[in-house]
Amino acid sequence: MILFYGRLDDAPLRRAVEAARESGVEHVLIEQRLLAHHDLVLHADEGGGAGCVVVAGTTVPLGDVRAAYLRPLEVAVDGDVVDQLRARTFHAGLMEWADVTGALVINRPTAMESNSSKPFQAQLIARAGFAVPEALVTSEPDLAAEFRRQHGRVIYKSVSGVRSIVRELDDAAAARLDRVRSVPTMFQAYVPGVDVRVHVVGSRVFATEITSASTDYRYAARDGNEALLAAVELPEEVAAQCVQLSTQLHLPLCGIDLRRRPDGRWICFEVNPMPAYSYYEANTGQPIAQAIVELCAEPRPAPPLTAGR
């Protein structure tokens, strides 16, 4: 059985649930907006008991769950204080279970923490063998200005895993550098080339080439530009390196942001542990949702309750 957790108004989760239904794969959905109406019982003993979840009056033993696809968004429940506390407690308990269960989890909360610090994750990416852009994290305007003088073209973004718009540090932005005193900011040397988003699902690789005049193609429409997406094949060694990176980060599903330089070198910017793959799937026809369900449905032994990964 596959356990899905998240919100059905979140396209990636909805697409995966739809793929499971279309394939006739046994699954249960825990709708995050209805947590106040669900029950969760967790226990651990010498027999390896795992507990159960009660969804819409149906009891599902967690020991029957062979895989889980989690897209936890902010816990926001309409209702009184009791309902809100109940929802937060349920969410916390399920995340604890996800970190210790022997089932396949896409992705474990502890593994997703690698993206909470972009500088830290960049070190992990480099250890896996990918080239990364030269970077500076600072709250000192003078250091940021010097970094720009050294590299000519520079982009900036948030240091944390919180989604931010990547922008170029042009003259207008440089005039506002005093603002970095309030919050450390990540600056990176600009890398020319073509963006390629790679989705790794287990050992499968789906690559999408993006053509856009915007620095951050995700927000091309805001800039009055287009973003054209096309499915592409990666060189075998690059595809293998992407699978190796996802394995080293303990992320069965991830979105890897690459750029292919004009000289043929590949640069890796970051790894998204909860990728919004549905955007790429809708524009290319790549069967990413189906691949997620197939990975979750692969035969595997009944999961014991184990600690860690």
Account of the protein in words:
30% of the residues lie in helices and 26% in strands. The chain is an alpha+beta fold and 309 residues long. Strands 14-13-12-15-16 form a five-stranded antiparallel sheet, with helices on both faces. Strand 15 and strand 16 form a beta hairpin. The longest helix is centred in the N-terminal third of the chain and has 20 residues, at 81-100. Mean pLDDT is 89; it is low at 305-309.
Enumerate the strands of the largest sheet in spatial order, edge to edge or round the barrel. Answer: 14-13-12-15-16
What global shape is seen? globular
Order of helices and strands: EHEEEEEHEHHEHEEHEEEEHEEHH
N- to C-terminal distance = 20 Å
Evaluate the radius of gyration: 21 Å
Number of strands: 16
SS-derived structural category:
alpha+beta
| Unreliable residue runs | 305-309
- Overall mean pLDDT score? 89
Tell me the major beta sheet: 5 strands, antiparallel
Helix content: 25-40%
Number of helices: 9
Index terms:
309 residues; alpha+beta; five-stranded antiparallel beta sheet; four-stranded parallel beta sheet; 9 helices; 26% strand; globular; disordered C terminus
Short overview:
30% of the residues lie in helices and 26% in strands. The chain has 309 residues and is an alpha+beta fold.
Furnish the topology, listing elements before pairings.
Elements: E1 2-6, H1 11-23, E2 27-31, E3 39-41, E4 52-55, E5 58-61, E6 67-70, H2 81-100, E7 104-106, H3 109-112, H4 118-127, E8 135-138, H5 141-151, E9 154-157, E10 167-168, H6 171-174, E11 185-189, E12 194-201, E13 204-212, E14 227-232, H7 236-248, E15 253-260, E16 266-272, H8 278-284, H9 288-297
Parallel strand pairs: 1-2, 1-6, 6-7
Antiparallel strand pairs: 3-4, 4-5, 8-11, 9-10, 9-11, 12-13, 12-15, 13-14, 15-16
